[in-house]
Amino acid sequence: MSTASASAHAHINTSMETASNSSINTTPVNTRSAQFTPQQHQQQYIYSPTPVYMQSPVQLGSQMSLQGPPHPGNPHQISILADHDIQRIVDSLKISLKDEINAIVNVAIQTQVQPLKDELTHLRAKVIHLEGEMDAANQYSRRNCILISNMKELPEENTNDIAIQVAKEGGLDITPSDIDRSHRNGKPKVNKPRDIIVKFVSYKTKHDFMKIRKQLRQRKSQAYINEHLTSFRGELAFQCRLLKKNPKSPVLDTWTYDGNIYIKTEVKGHMIRVNTHNDLVQFGYNPNQSMN
């Protein structure tokens, strides 16, 4: 090898060694002795010739540090998060997830639960309508019937004869041929006579019989005459009578006609037809408390 060639080779080796020594900091970093105070920045950086981000988290004093991947600009940069920073991130995630969950639940309610509620409301309204139709049909089947109450019950009695006797007491003449059938209603009672159900052959006879109620009251008859109402309408009429007796209620009078129930709140006012219990709420009826 010539003298010039050897000199050039030695110069290249010297330059590479100098560049290598200047680019690598061989001073070891003691990460365990590093101390951080609250006055310092929330992010601290440690420089090391080896990629410490591949190591497990290290304990820095009383704080647990998280080591992230190296920054593109510096392959040996490590980000340190304090405990309160981690807690702040966790709280922020909780709020974010809570809002997202609430949004998902609200969407589910609107898309799935609400249609079910609407269908349930529709079905309830349909049931109420069908029950009303059934009650109306049941009441119509009793169109020619009346109830005679407070008549002494005898072992060998004839209920047709009792009905004819009550009619004569009120000034109405009827014959056995006007009566389709009659009988006591329900099981025998100890201290109270059962009502007598009378079904007439024609609606006209039943209508004429209902007209003698006023004459019976004037003559102080022991008999009481009422229409044969369904259970629902009978209870509704009973609530109307309770309102009439209540001094706090505006109901002045109540009666039935052809199975329908009416009330009056003014002496010369119009009569009001009552179809359901809800119609009585405005007059003082409380569905949760019986009025005495």
How would you sum up this structure, described in words?
With 292 residues, the chain is α+β, with helices and mostly antiparallel strands. It has four domains: 42-81, no CATH class; 90-140; 142-228, L1 transposable element, RRM domain (Alpha-Beta Plaits, 2-Layer Sandwich), CATH 3.30.70.1820; 231-292, no CATH class. It has six helices and nine strands. It has helices at 3-23, 83-140, 159-169, 203-211, 213-218, 231-245, and strands at 59-60, 63-64, 145-149, 179-184, 196-200, 224-227, 253-257, 260-264, 272-274. A four-stranded antiparallel beta sheet has the order 4-5-3-6. The chain has a three-stranded antiparallel beta sheet with strand order 7-8-9, with helices on one face. β8 (260-264) and β9 form a beta hairpin. The protein is elongated. The termini are far apart. The model is unreliable at 1-6 and 18-67 (pLDDT under 50).
What is the compact description of this entry?
The protein is α+β, with helices and mostly antiparallel strands.
